[in-house]
Amino acid sequence: MAQYQKNTDSFDVSSEQDSLDNIVVEDDYNQQDDIDSFKSFSSFDVESEEQGDEEAQVQEGEEENQNYQESNQDIQDKDSMVDDETNFEEEQQQAQDMIKKTDQIILNKINLKKRNIFQLVHRSQVSMISEKQNGYLSKKKNNVNSNKSAQNGQQAQGTQILKREILNYSRREKSLEELSKKFLSLFLDKEESMLSLDKITNQLGVERRRIYDIINILESLKLVSRKGKNNYKWNGFQKIYETITQFDQKSLTKKEEQELTQEPQKREKSLEMLSIGFLKLFLHWKSTMTLEEAARKLSSKQIDDHKIKTKIRRLYDIANVFKSLGLIKKTSLIETKKPAFEWIGIVGLDSFAYKIMREKKNGEEEQNCDEDSINQSQQISQQNSFTEPKLSKKRFSNDKNSSKIDSTTGQQKQQLKKSFIIQQQLKEQREKERLQIEQNQKQQQANLQQNTLNNNLDNSNITQNVSQLLQTIQKNMKIQNQETPLQNNSSNTPLSLLSQLQILSRPIQQNLVNNLSNLINNINNNNQNNLIQQEEQQQNNNNNNLIGNLMLKCLQNVITNFVNKNTNNTQNRQKSDENQTNQQQILLESPQKVLKINNQINNQNNSLIQNQMSSNTKMNNNSNYKCLQSSQKSTTNLGDFTTAKKQKQIVNDENIPLSGEKGLHQGFSSQNASSLKTPILKRTLTIIQPKLDETEDITPTPPTCKRSFSACLSSSNNNNINNTSTIFQNLIQQNQNQIYLNPFSDKTNLNNNNNNKQQIFNSILGVQQQQQQQASSSSFKKIRKLTYENNSLQGSDNKQNDMDSTELKKSSSCESQINFNTLIQTSQQLLKNQNLQQNLNNLQQTQNNGINQNNQLFNPLKELKINQINNIQNIRVLEHYF
DNA sequence: GCCTCCCGCCAGAAT
DNA sequence: ATTCTGGCGGGAGGC
User: Fold this and answer.
1) Contact A272, A217 (CB under 8 A)
2) Contact A744/A873 with Cβ under 8 angstroms?
3) Which residue is nearest to nucleotide C4 (CA to C1')?
C-alpha cells in the first residue's frame, strides 16, 4: 500500500508537471516527442499486460494520462477489475480512482485547450496525434470489447466527437488508399521481412481492423503472406510483378468459371478471393469496368441486391488498395457516366514505386534542411490534400474534368495521344543524338585517360578519372531523367551524381560514394601536401596507384559499359557496333586480368565455390534473376500483353455492351506503355535492384554484391543475361597472351609458370623489400614471414596445385568474409600506406644513427606490410566481383 | 440523392 | 479462455 501511495504521489506530480511543461512548450511542440512517448507507452503497456500487477495497472493509468487519453473508460475498467479484490483494496482503489478522476478532468480541460492551440498552430501535427490516439483507443477498445459493449458505444461517440469537432478530422486521411500507401511505403524498399501487426498499427496509427483489410488484399497480390498469429511476412515488392504476370498467363477456362460460380465456398478470406477475382477480371475480361459489373460477374447469377451491395462495398475496399498501388485508376464510362475503374497495370505499379522511392529519397534529404521549411511544406501539402476544403474540392473537380475530357470525346483523346507520342518520339530522337555525341566524346576521354593512366600513374589522374567519369554519368543520367527531373539541389559534386546511378544496389552505392569521396579527398590532400616527397616514393606510389587505378578502372568500365549499353540499346546499331569494339577494348584494358584469374578460379574449382555458397544464397540468386527477367519481360511485352487482352475482350464484348470506350482505354494504355518503355525499364531496374534494407545492414554480404553486380551487367543487355559473361570470356580468350605491367599481371603470369611464391611476393613488393633490406635484413625476414602467414601462403612451397588451392581458399574465404565496404576501404588503406611510408622515410632520415630504430621501424613496417597484404587479398575479391 | 467507404460489431478461427 | 481474423452492413461523408 505504501507503494500505491508513492505511485499516486509521483503520479500527481509527474502528471501536473508534464501537462504544464507541455503547455509551455506547446509552440515548439515536437512531433517526435509524441511519437516517443507513444512508443514508450505502448512498450509499457505490453509489459504491464505481462506482469498483470495492480501496480502496473496504476502506472498504466498514469501513462495514459500523460498521453492525453480519455481515461474515463479506463477508470471504469479498473472499477470492474477491482471488483474481485478484497474490500480494503477496493476502497483504496476507489480513492485513487477519485483522485485520478479529478486529475483527469483537469487534464482533459488542459488537453482540450492544447488541442485547440495545436489545431491553429500545427494542423498537420495534430492530425498525427489524432491518428495515434485513435489507434490507441481502438486497440484499447478491442481489449475491452468482450467485457462491455455499451460503454464502447459511448466511447465511440466520444471519439467521434473528438475527431470531428476538436480535431480537424478528415475522413480521407483514414481511407484505405492512404493507409495502404503508408503501409507500402514502409516496406516498399525492403526485402523479405517479417511484419508484426502491433507494430504496424502503431506506425500507421489505425485500428487493427483496417490493417486486416489491407493485408488481406495485399495477400491476394502475394505481397504479404500470413505466417502465424500476429505475424506476417513481406515478400518484397517485386513479387507483385510475378503475381500479375502469373495471373495474366493463367488460362481462365474452367478455373474461372468455378471461381465465378462457387464464390461462396469458403467463409475464410473471401476478401482475398474477391480481390483475386477482381484482378482476373481486369486481366481477362475488361480493362474498364464498374464495380457493380464486377460484383455481378463475380457472383452467381441469382443473387440478392443486398448481397450485391455488400460485395460492392468490398470491391470498393479492394479498388482503393489497387488504386493506391497504381494498378487501377478511376474513370467514368462515356455513355452512362457511371464511375468505373480502369486497369493500368504494371505501368502504374512502376510509377507508384518510383514515386514512393523518390519521396523517400527527398524525405531523407529534407531531414537535413531547415525544420521550418519542412513544417511549411508539410502544412502546405496537408492543406492541399486533406484539411483545406476549398483546395480539395478544386483538386477533385479538376480530376473529374480531366477524366471527363479523356473519356467523353474519343477524337480529342486520339489527337492527344498522337501528339503525345510524336512529342515523345522527338524527345527520344534528340536525346539519342545527344547521347551519341557525348558517348563519342566520353570514349575519347576514356581512351585518353587510360593512355595517360597507363603512362603516368598519378594521383591526380585518379581524381580526374573519377570526376570525368562521373560527369559523363551525370550527363547521361540527366538525359535519362528528363521525364522525371529530380527537383533536388543542383548536385554538382560528382559523387552525389554517382549516387544517382541506380544500377547498383543502394548499399553498394552508398559505400562507393562515401568511400570514393574520401579517397578523392585524401588523394587531393596528399597531392597538395606531399608533392616533394612524392618523388622519393614514386615507385611505391606507382604500386599503390596501380592498385587504386585498377579498382577505379574496373568501376569505370562497368559503369560506362552499362550506361552505353543501356542508352545504345534502342538506337542505331551501326555506331553502337563501332562503340562496342571500343567498349570491348576499354573493357580489355583492366578487367581482363581480373577475368583471367576469375576464369581460372571458376573453371578449376567451381565445385569448391559452389559448396561454399549456401543453398539459400543460391535460391536468392535464382529468384533475383527470375525477378529481373520477369520485370523486363513484363515491361517489354506490355504491348503484346494488352493486345492479347484486346482480342479476348473482343470476344467477350459481344456478351456485354458498354463497349464504346473500352477500345480507347486499352489503346491508350498500350500506346502509353510502349512510348514509356525505356524509362520504365530503368525504373523497374531501380525498383528491383535495391531490395536490401539499407538502414539495418549497410554492408551487404558478398554473394549479394556479386549478385547485384552481375544483375547490373546482365540488365544492361536486354537479350541475354549471360551475354556479359560470354563477352568476358571472349575478351579473356582474345587477350590471354598479352602482358601487362601492373603487379597483377605479373602475378597471374607467375601463377601460370611454376615459379615459387617468393618470386611472386618479391615482384609484388619488390620496392619495399629493398628498403627493408636496407633497414634490416633480419627484420625483413621476419616481416616477410609475417606477411606470408598473413597471406595464408605459408606451407608447401613448390607445388603449383597447392598454390592454387590456397589461393582459392583464400579468395573463397574472402568471399564469405570480406564485404564490399572493406573492399573500398582498401583504397583508403592504400593511402594510409602512403602516409606510413612517409613516416617511415622521415624516421629514416631523422634517426639514421640510432641503434634502436629498428624496433621503431619494425612496427610501422609490419603494419605497412600487413596492410598491403590485406589490400591484395581484398583486391582479389574485388577482381572476383568485377 | 447517389456514390463511397469508414467504422466497428461480432462470429468464428486460432492459439 | 482468450486473442486474432475477417465478414458484414449501417450510416456518415463527399460530391
Assistant:
1) yes
2) no
3) A229
pLDDT above 90 as % of chain A? 0
Using DSSP, state whether A237 is helix, strand or coil: coil
Please say if the pLDDT value at position A354 is more than 80.
yes
Give the best-scoring range by mean pLDDT among A232-236, A560-564, A654-658, A770-774: A232-236
Q: Is pLDDT at A558 greater than 60 in this prediction?
A: no
In this prediction, what percent of chain A has a pLDDT beyond 70? 20
Strands A231-234 and A224-228: antiparallel
CA-to-C1' span, A396 to C15 (A): 9
Closest CA to A213 of A317, A359, A76: A317
Domain spans of chain A, in order of start:
2-169, 176-348, 414-640+679-734, 743-881
State, as a whole number of angstroms, the distance between the CA of A657 and the C1' of B2: 23
Q: What values do phi and psi take at A340, rounded to 5?
A: -145, 175
Q: What would the grid cell of residue A6 be?
A: 508513492
Q: Hey, what's the torsion of the CAs at A286, A288, A290, A294, to 10 degrees?
A: 30
Confidence of residue A240 (pLDDT cuts 50, 70, 90): confident
Rounded CA-CA distance A387/A377 in Å is: 14
List protein-proximal bases of chain B (any atom < 7 A from a CB).
3-10, 12-15
Question: 3-state DSSP call for residue A288?
Answer: strand
A504, β-bridge pairs = none
pLDDT tens digits, one per residue of A484-510: 333 333 344 444 444 444 333 344 444
Distance CA A216, CA A470 (A): 45
Residue nearest to nucleotide C5 (CA to C1'): A212
Contacts of A216 (CB under 8 A, 6+ apart): A269, A271, A272, A275
- Please state whether strand B lies within 7 Å of residue A149 at its CB atom: yes
CA gap A430, A433 in Å, rounded: 5
- Whether the CB-CB separation of A570 and A678 falls below 8 Å is answered with yes
Closest residue (CA) to C1' of nucleotide B15 is: A229
Kindly give, in sequence order, each residue whose CB lies less than 8 Å from that of residue A601, ignoring residues fewer than 6 positions away: A609, A807, A808, A811, A880
Amino acid occupying residue A111:
N
Give the distance, in angstroms, between residue A229 CA and nucleotide B5 C1'.
28
Residue A476 to residue A854: CA distance in whole angstroms: 54
Q: In what order do the strands lie in the sheet with A288-289?
A: A288-289, A339-343, A328-332
- Main-chain dihedrals φ then ψ at residue A212, nearest 5 degrees: -60, -45
Residue A586 region by backbone torsions, left for phi larger than 0, else alpha for psi between -120 and 50, else beta: alpha
Beta bridge partners of A288: A342
Distance of alpha carbon A287 from alpha carbon A424, whole angstroms: 25
- Give the model confidence (pLDDT) of A734-746 as tens digits: 544 443 333 332 3
| Interval A108-117: pLDDT, tens | 444 443 443 3
Q: Is the shortest CB-to-strand distance from A143 to strand B under 7 Å? A: no
